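Task 17 of the worksheet. Students: predict the tertiary structure of the chain below and write it out as structure tokens. Keep your answer in the requested format; marks are given for formatting as well as content.
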Amino acid sequence: MPDKVSTILSTYYATKLRVNDCMHTATLITIRTLEALIRLAAAHAKSRLSTKVSVEDTNAAIKLLTHTLTNTTININTGIKLITDAMIDDTDAMIDDIN
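Model answer:
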């Protein structure tokens, strides 16, 4: 996996860990989340019939995971869904910043 791809994945994972700690959400961000991102990026590359994971594959994996978490993240104390469509737009901006 290229260094740029590794940097993007690790930065995204670290950012999600910090956000998860600050917001006290029920969604667990664990090392398995990072492993899932790596597998999703590799699967996206394979769908393009490529043997190498690109930045675009990584971005697609991050967007897919963000969409999944959007539908499952709930505040443990209030039961209120925390992630909004505006936060999805923030993810796009974060991906641009990392790249």
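Marker's comment: Helices lie at 3-23, 31-47, 55-70, 85-98. Residues 5 and 83 are 25 Å apart (CA to CA).
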